[in-house]
Amino acid sequence: MIDARPHRRLLCIKFAALALLGGCAGPGGLGGPPRITLSRGEIARLLDRQFPQDRRLLEVLDVRLESPQVHLLAERNRLAAGLDLNVRERLLGGRWNGRLEFDAALRWVARDHTLRLFQARVSDLRLVSAGAEARTPAERLGAALVERVLEDMVLYTLPAERAETLRASGVAPDSVAVTERGVEITFSAAAR
């Protein structure tokens, strides 16, 4: 006769992990894979924590990025945001204000339990100086540099106690998707 106690114990651990995710679980509940759904508002708050950001680019430009506005691009499985941009050229003292629009895919990094921006792409960068719009090669260079700043930016970190409970139960993030409801992180049985 086979002892069912170890199997029952494993089921109890997995059920506890599902219950722990319960506060964030999206559709599917106990009948489907567990998932965390971060609404557009939650994503906006998480992204807002990352700004303002002050960066020096090429030792020539001081750039400030602030006031993110988030959009979900469910049809492309990407997250988009617009940022206010202030640039000061350090050598000649030129100043520009503008708006930066970007979109990015999202990826889960298992080693530190983070959701990060991935394949960040600037879709529009407009700078204005003394009332005149400036469409220059500097904007193209600025867009390339800003993409480097945004790439791999941490958006969300799974709390350590949840990560440990999931690890102990053999559950790991399986996929990340941008939907109309928000960003969904779906969990499944971890590979052994």
The largest β sheet comes out as:
7 strands, antiparallel
Helix/sheet category? alpha+beta
Mean pLDDT: 80
Remind me, CATH topology? Bactericidal permeability-increasing protein, domain 1
How would you summarize what this structure contains?
This protein has helices at residues 5-21, 40-48, 137-150, 160-169; strands spanning 35-38, 53-57, 61-73, 78-89, 95-109, 114-129, 132-134, 154-157, 171-178, 183-189. The protein is an alpha+beta fold and 192 residues long. β6 and β7 (132-134) form a beta hairpin.
Q: What does this 3D model show about the protein?
A:
The chain has one domain: Bactericidal permeability-increasing protein, domain 1 (Super Roll). The protein contains 4 helices and 10 strands; from the N terminus they run H-E-H-E-E-E-E-E-E-H-E-H-E-E. Strand 5 (95-109) and strand 6 form a beta hairpin. The strands form 2 sheets. Strands 2, 3, 4, 5, 6, 7 and 8 form a 7-stranded antiparallel β-sheet that branches. It has a 3-stranded antiparallel β-sheet with strand order 1-10-9. Helix content is 26%, strand content 45%. With 192 residues, the protein is of the alpha+beta class. The chain starts with a helix and ends with a strand. The radius of gyration is 21 Å and the shape is elongated. The longest helix is centred in the first third of the chain and has 17 residues, at 5-21. The protein has helices at residues 5-21, 40-48, 137-150, 160-169, and strands at 35-38, 53-57, 61-73, 78-89, 95-109, 114-129, 132-134, 154-157, 171-178, 183-189.
